[in-house]
Amino acid sequence: MRAGFLLLLFLTDKVYSQKVCSYQDVLDYLNLTRGNEAFTSTRPVLDHTHLTTVQLNIYLYSILAVTEKIQTFIPFIWIEMNWNNELISWDPSQFCGISQISLPKNMLWKPDLFIYEMTQKDETTLYPYLYVTHKGIVSIEEGMKVVSSCKMDVHKFPFDTQRCSISFSSVMYTVDEVRLIPVSNSSWATQSSLEVMLTQGEWEFLNLLVTNDTLSFYRGDWDQIIYTITMRRRPLLHVINFLLPILFFLSLDLASFLISDHRGEKLGFKVTVLLAISVLLLILNDILPSMSNKTPLIATYCIVIFALMLLSLLETILVTYLMEKDSPSQENLSLRDDCEDEQDKDKSHNCGRGDEAYYNVQRKRKGDKEIVGNSRQTGETGVLLLILEELRELQKSLAPLVSSKQEAGKTGYWTRAARRINTAFFICYVIAVSFFLIFMCIEWST
Q1: Which residues, other chains included, contact 134 with Cβ-Cβ below 8 Å and sequence gap of 6+?
Q2: 78, 227 contact by CB (below 8 A)
Q3: Coil, helix or strand at residue 411
Q4: pLDDT tens, residue by residue, 91-134
Q5: What pLDDT, on the 0 to 100 scale, is given for residue 417?
Q6: Structure confidence at residue 339 (pLDDT)
Q7: Phi/psi of residue 419, each to 5°?
Q8: Residue partners of 377: CB distance under 8 A and separation at least 6
Q9: What are the extents of the domains in the chain?
Q10: Helix (H, G, I), strand (E, B), or coil: what is residue 265?
Q11: Which range, of 7-11, 101-105, 230-234, 428-432, averages the lowest pLDDT?
C-alpha cells in the first residue's frame, strides 16, 4: 500500500516536471496582442505621475564619411535602450522558467527619441524585435547610419581635429514624464567603441564624450543626452597628393634662377610652373567648404606660394627686358669684330659704316701724300694748307668711329644692372620662402 502511494507520487511529480510552456502562453496571460492599444498608445505607467526612465547607450562602429564641403558627418552607431513598462510582469515559475520574450516593436510603446543633428532619414535595415523581461524591462538594440550636420573647423586642414555631436532627446515628453540617463560614462564609452570599431577610413577616432543636458522651450524642459565624437584626420594622403607637389613646384621655381636670362626658356618654364599651381588651387577649392570662420592655413599656404612665384615671374620679365636693351649695341660690337676679322683676310671687304670711313681715310692719306709731294714745289704755305685740310678730313672721317667706341664702352650697363637685381631678388626670395615655411610648420603643429 505504501509502495503504491510512493509510485503514484513519483509519477505525478514527473508529469508536472514535464509541463510544456510556450511564449504564447505568456502573451495570453498578459493579454498582449497587436490590436491592444493599451500597450502602444500611452506611456506605460500605472500612475501618470511616475517617471519613465530611459537608459541609453551607444557604440561607435565606424566613421563612414566626413564631408567638409557640406559639413556632414556620417557615422554608423549601435544603440541600446531600455526602460520599465509597468503594465507587464509575470512569474517565470508559472511558465516553465521563461524570464524574457521577444516581441515585434509595434506591439509596445517606445520612447519617441530623435537626433537633433540628423539631416536624412535612416535607410538601414531595422531590427523588428525587442526584448521584454518578466519584471517589465523593455530593451531595444539596433544599428543606425546617421547622416548629421557638423560644424567643422578646417583652419588647420589637413592637420585638423574635428568634434561632431549626436544629441538624443524626446519629441513630446518633457523631463516630468521621460528622463534620459546614459548607461556608461565617457571613458567606458570610448573604450567600448575602440574595441568594436570596424573602420575609421581617413579619420582616427580619439574620444567619445557623454554629457547630459536640458533643452528649454516655451512649453517646458526636455532632457537630452549629447555624445560628442572627437576624431583626428590622417593627413598622409593630403600631404602626398597636395602639399608636397606644391613644395616641389616651389623648389623648381628656385632652381629656375640657374637658367640663363638671355634665352626665353626661363620665362616659359616659370609660366608653366605657375599654371601647375593654378590647377592644384582648383582641386583645393573642391575640398574645402565654401564658408569658414577662419581662412584655412592650406589656402594661405597655396596663395602665398602662388604670390611668391608670381613675383618671381615678374622679376624674370624685368631682367629679360633690361638685358634686351643691350642687345642692339652687342649686335653692333659683334658685327664690328667680324669685320675686323674679315679685314685681315680681305682688305677690299666693306664691313659697315665705320670701317668704310676708315678705308676712306686710308685712301685719302695716299692721295694727300701725292699732293704733299707736289706741294713741295709750290712752297711751305701750300704744304701747311694741305696738312690742315687733311686733319679736318681725318676728323670728320674718324667721328663715327669715336662715337661707336663710346657707345661700345656703355654696352653691358643694363645687363650688369639686371644681374644685380637678379642676385638681390634671389637672396630675398630664399629668405622669404624659408621664413614662410617655418611659420606654416609652427601654425600647423600648434
Answers
A1: 89, 90, 91, 92, 98, 99, 100
A2: no
A3: coil
A4: 999 999 899 999 998 899 999 999 999 988 877 767 889 999 99
A5: 86
A6: 47
A7: -65, -40
A8: none
A9: 20-234, 238-326+420-445, 327-411
A10: helix
A11: 7-11
The grid coordinates of residue 430 equal 630664399
| Among 102, 83, 103, 251, residue whose Cα is nearest residue 170 | 83
Per-residue model confidence (pLDDT) at position 398: 62
Q: Is 50 exceeded by the pLDDT of residue 350? A: no
Q: What is the mean pLDDT of residues 243-272?
A: 86
Largest CA distance in the chain: 194
Q: Which helix (H) or strand (E) holds 417?
A: helix 413-445
Q: Are strands 72-84 and 52-67 parallel, antiparallel or unpaired?
A: antiparallel
Q: CA 68, CA 287: separation in Å to the nearest integer?
A: 7
Cell numbers representing residue 276 in the block: 601647375
Give the type of residue at 215. L
∠ at Cα 392 (387, 393), nearest 5°? 95
176 residue type, one letter: D
Using CA atoms, how far residue 384 sits from 118, 378, 390, 393, 395, in Å, is 115, 11, 10, 14, 17
Q: What is the Cα–Cα distance from 294 to 443, expressed in whole angstroms?
A: 13
The DSSP secondary structure of 192-221, one letter per residue, reads HHHHH--B-TTEEEEEEEEEEEEEEETTEE
Which residue type is seen at 26? Answer: V
pLDDT given for residue 403 in this prediction: 56
CA 331 to CA 287: how far, in whole Å? Answer: 54
23, 101 in Cβ contact below 8 A?
yes
Query: In the CATH hierarchy, which fold is given to the domain comprising 20-234?
Result: Acetylcholine Binding Protein; Chain: A, (2.70.170)
Query: Alpha-carbon distance 208 to 230, whole Å?
Result: 6
pTM, full prediction: 0.72
| Class (C level, CATH) for 238-326+420-445 | mainly alpha
